[in-house]
Amino acid sequence: MSRETTDIRQEQIKKAVLDIIADEGLQNISTRNLAKRIGLSEGAIFRHFPTKRDIIKGIMDDVANDLIGSLRNIVLKPEKAEDKLFKYLCQNVKYLKENRGITMLLFSEAAHLGDKELKEKLNHILYEQKQFIIKMVKDGIKEGVWDKSVNAEDVAIIYMGIPITFNIEFVLNKNGLNADNFCRRMYTLILKILKN
Amino acid sequence: MSRETTDIRQEQIKKAVLDIIADEGLQNISTRNLAKRIGLSEGAIFRHFPTKRDIIKGIMDDVANDLIGSLRNIVLKPEKAEDKLFKYLCQNVKYLKENRGITMLLFSEAAHLGDKELKEKLNHILYEQKQFIIKMVKDGIKEGVWDKSVNAEDVAIIYMGIPITFNIEFVLNKNGLNADNFCRRMYTLILKILKN
DNA sequence: TACGTTAGTAAGTAAGTGATTACAACATTA
DNA sequence: TAATGTTGTAATCACTTACTTACTAACGTA
Q: Read out DSSP for chain B?
């Protein structure tokens, strides 16, 4: 194999993990299989990451940056809360659809527990998302378009279930879900909760 | 170890799986650890279940019977849709809280894919639950108390996220969730979607 | 061109996995 | 009571896991 820098190899390794999850399933992300997919020896993997757990950690950090970053952009834009919430939901669903492997990885780590640091990272990702929702709901209330008796945190909780359910449906029934259509329909329901 | 019938051992083994998941994490349900927890040799496990996968299958069948059965009871009772939906949600959340291990097991199997039969079983469990919701929503519309322009299937989808989100929150943040309070708050939101 | 650093390999390691074996002790029933 | 089937054990199977070792080859730079 030709030589590449650690930076490039790290990206390749992380990508390989997600690719394997998406088309072979979570149980196949062994370091052996990982190396095979990149076309590298198993030992080389450990040249670029000290442990397998560090690979997972790296992927989680990427999610925290990419997904949370793109969602933050939407939240901070100077638009009407109503428009932002819709874009936010669609972006959220789209990201999960395009990065199927990531969600499954996150949930698996949550399910397996055992690792406090990874659990904490997941918690942080979910917490930030929830805060974004809460902010948008409160903004909409301030704008006067939404019911001020509504509990923003409760809305955030019920919202959080939408992308998760989408992902589960998507995993179990790969072909039968249109992301755009899905987010529009769910947004309609959320709006009924929020409207005066 | 004293002799017991296969029926008793099967129950012990399935219980041990859930106990281990709940307090050691999913990664520790090896046949070795399973045997140790029951106080049996590893070989004895395979005396009562042909393979480890059959243990998981057995647990899934239990869920299909217990949870789906108890929910069906609620759905079929001759009460007002409004009351049934509330009881349904509370029962659903309560079951997940009391059987934390089961949910994690189901999601892990979904995430790991690979096994068509288990995936099909999970799909079936989720499908039945969704059908129950759809029925109750349509009943409520027939009763004239709920908005007939609302799409029952969409409500079912957004509903499904609630117990799932509850479970995730519960796993990540064990102490901080009151099931009764949670289901009451979520029910309030669902009602806003349904009301005329 | 020499030299230290980086990135690669093949072949290991110990520990763990699900599953099987040969055999012993017990229970049921003919 | 003798025969038979059931439930247990200890040891071991073949295999996979994450990770390590000893060593080699390419790179940048002085």
A: -----HHHHHHHHHHHHHHHHHHH-GGG--HHHHHHHHT--HHHHHHH-SSHHHHHHHHHHHHHHHHHHHHHHHHHSSS-HHHHHHHHHHHHHHHHHHTHHHHHHHHHHHHH---HHHHHHHHHHHHHHHHHHHHHHHHHHHHTSB-TTS-HHHHHHHHHHHHHHHHHHHHHSTTS--HHHHHHHHHHHHHHHHB-
